[in-house]
Amino acid sequence: xxxxxxxxxxxxxxxxxxxxxxxxxxxxxxxxxxxxxxxxxxxxxxxxxxxxxxxxxxxxxxxxxxxxxxxxxxxxxxxxxxxxxxxxxxxxxxxxxxxxxxxxxxxxxxxxxxxxxxxxxxxxxxxxxxxxxxxxxxxxxxxxxxxxxxxxxxxxxxxxxxxxxxxxxxxxxxxxxxxxxxxxxxxxxxxxxxxxxxxxxxxxxxxxxxxxxxxxxxxxxxxxxxxxxxxxxxxxxx
Length: 238
What we know:
Elements: E1 14-18, H1 30-38, E2 43-50, E3 56-58, H2 85-92, E4 96-101, H3 115-127, E5 133-137, H4 140-149, E6 155-159, H5 164-173, E7 178-181, H6 188-196, E8 200-203, H7 209-218, E9 222-225, H8 228-237
Parallel strand pairs: 1-2, 1-9, 2-4, 4-5, 5-6, 6-7, 7-8, 8-9
Antiparallel strand pairs: 2-3
């Protein structure tokens, strides 16, 4: 399943609000997700980490602002601005959602069994949201597990690696529908190689209007941005 993540020739890229509309509101909050729709985003990108009770919290860093590691804090003690996944999804409404699972070996909350993958897959099944979601992760084994648990749920390899041809090969071999590369490494050739492999290309994180238009001209399928209103305006003028 690639639709709606793979755009047809001539279609503008999807605009995905990075951690919600994170320039307008605090990142990864209910307010940021609601603002994303108001500012014209097609979808949101949000980060999930494992809570102490095994559920998913929407938070970028492994630690809270006070230094405590999220997974070690009882759920009842979490700050009110840190939503759980269900609260975040309610705020997203009908928007597309890119769920990024945070699970990296050097993080203090790393889980080699990737239990969070199962939590995310269960949430998608419960909401029957396969057609609106894509799940990504830097950790290859974690996102591969998501794919293996439910092949109906679109998945993407998230990468900051410069060799995007190799990254496309890995994504294809692991059964993903998309590659999520870091913008500085993206050029027309990398986009073409990914498309030739049958992959959608969703680029992160791009706030400059000229760069948004350049990526659109190369045919990328999605652009992750902190300023969805700026990106939408750039494409409307392009």
